[in-house]
Structure to design on (303 residues):
């Protein structure tokens, strides 16, 4: 019996790439799937392949930027399987452009609508359904290591940073009802990475091809988040890169906390230099070791 036996799961962006690879893995673990994509034919091809293997899979077209589409997607899953146990959302687009190369806002607007608003639309409808069922369930969003910043990728980085923030906030919202919300930060060779590589080659920043990274390497992490093995895990982001699994840190205040009655430019510069003699944190992804310690002074927020 698989880790997801008889769980009813929606996989979005399942027409190709990581979404299709994840759908195959989840089905092999016993899940009953509704696979969705804005490309209806691609979604059905994924579902048909799974059915040919004796798996349970139906397909549906969905545009995650449309609130009504996301509501209909959740309703279809309930109609098919009686409930919604999990959602894995891989809908996303990317483009690279420096601020000096931007000439119109349409590309950025579309990117935010798909990556961030689309994640929001899917998550809200899924969480509402899970609560109506009496609680429980798991949502897996797709963030990115680029939330730490990527040259020429400000819009994409910001959208994925927003997905991480949604994940943290929804984990708090869902906790009383046993609804878990996590995210993966996948690395894989897909059509999206081909777009990135083409941009870098045009800029002379990449020669040849990068090593191939199988999209399927991300599937076990998604299955873990959706399974009962992760029933105590929420608000986490796992970055998967081939054989490596990296736990991303939450946004945090670096200790020590600097405090004095009155600050000015000189005292702030001096205090930062003394507290961090090796320099401030570098841009981009870096490793961090530390201990968790609550801050003594925080603003009151809803819990």
């Amino acid at each position: 019996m698989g880790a997801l036996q008889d769980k009813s799961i929606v996989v979005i962006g399942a027409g190709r790439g990581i979404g299709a690879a994840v759908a195959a893995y989840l089905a092999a673990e016993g899940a009953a799937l509704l696979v969705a994509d804005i490309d209806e034919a691609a979604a059905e091809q994924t579902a048909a392949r799974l059915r040919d293997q004796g798996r349970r899979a139906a397909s549906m077209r969905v545009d995650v930027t449309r609130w009504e589409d996301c509501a209909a997607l959740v309703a279809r899953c309930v109609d098919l399987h009686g409930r919604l146990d999990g959602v894995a959302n891989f809908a996303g687009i990317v483009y690279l452009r420096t601020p000096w190369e931007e000439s119109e806002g349409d590309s950025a607007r579309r990117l935010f609508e798909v990556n961030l608003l689309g994640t929001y639309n899917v998550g809200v409808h899924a969480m509402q359904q899970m609560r109506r069922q009496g609680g429980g369930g798991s949502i897996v969003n797709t963030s990115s290591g680029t939330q730490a910043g990527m040259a020429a990728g400000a819009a994409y980085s910001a959208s994925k940073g927003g997905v991480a923030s949604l994940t943290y906030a929804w984990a708090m919202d869902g906790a009383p009802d046993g609804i878990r919300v996590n995210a993966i930060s996948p690395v894989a060779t897909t059509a999206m990475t081909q777009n990135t590589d083409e941009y870098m080659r045009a800029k002379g920043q990449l020669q040849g091809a990068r090593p191939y990274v199988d999209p399927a390497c991300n599937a076990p992490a998604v299955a873990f988040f959706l399974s009962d093995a992760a029933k105590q895990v929420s608000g986490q982001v796992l970055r998967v890169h081939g054989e490596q699994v990296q736990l991303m840190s939450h946004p945090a205040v670096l200790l020590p906390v600097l405090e004095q009655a009155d600050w000015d430019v000189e005292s702030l510069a001096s205090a930062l230099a003394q507290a961090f003699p090796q320099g401030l944190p570098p841009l981009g992804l870096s490793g961090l070791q530390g201990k968790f310690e609550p801050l003594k002074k925080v603003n009151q927020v809803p819990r």
Remarks:
- The chain has eight helices and eight strands.
- Helices lie at 17-28, 40-52, 67-81, 106-132, 154-174, 191-202, 219-226, 265-275.
- The chain has one domain: 8-247.
- Strands lie at 8-12, 32-37, 56-61, 86-89, 138-142, 180-187, 237-241, 244-247.
